[in-house]
Amino acid sequence: MAISDFFVSYWYLIFGGIGGGFYTFFYFWKRSKKMQMVMDRIMLKIPVFGELVRKATIARWSRTLATMFAAGVPLVEAFDSVAGAAGNAVYYEATKKIQREVSTGNSLTVAMQNTEVFPSMVLQMVAIGEEAGSLDSMLSKGRRLL
């Protein structure tokens, strides 16, 4: 009974504490790189919703890279914009790793395989696009197939 009376008497403190806790959580989620990485990894592992987030992220990544490449931006420089456009810390780090590997001479397909975050269909489309010399059109098609 005493707990019930406490909740009735101090409801505003309880809701204020819960609201403040959510605010603090989201504040640190957006401001801390480590927290972003942890939360984005969790988001990608959630059953059903995680796959949706993964597909949306890869589609955004592919669209941005295709646009930048079609505009004539060098591939290594395009990855700076692509990393930020991904909207996911896991794919941001993967894109930076791809950028480092491509700048040292690896092919895009091999660099993407080394990150282990892209599905095989996307890797196959990039490989075909690289061989055919039409990477931008293959990336544009790939985002529609996801």
Explain this structure.
- 84% of the residues lie in helices and 0% in strands.
- The longest helix has 22 residues, at 49-70.
- By secondary structure, it is mainly α.
- Helix 4 runs antiparallel to helix 5.
- The radius of gyration is 21 Å and the shape is elongated.
- The protein has 9 helices and no strands.
Please describe the structure with a list of short key phrases separated by commas or semicolons.
single chain, 146 residues, mainly alpha, 84% helix
Oligomeric state of the chains? single chain
Envelope shape: elongated
Q: Please state the structural category.
A: mainly alpha
How many strands in all?
0
Average pLDDT, all residues: 87
Number of helices: 9
The Cα radius of gyration reads 21 Å
Low-confidence stretches: none
Helix content: over 70%
Strand residue content: under 5%
Distance between the termini: 55 Å
Taking the sheet with the most strands, its summary is: none
Order of SSEs: HHHHHHHHH
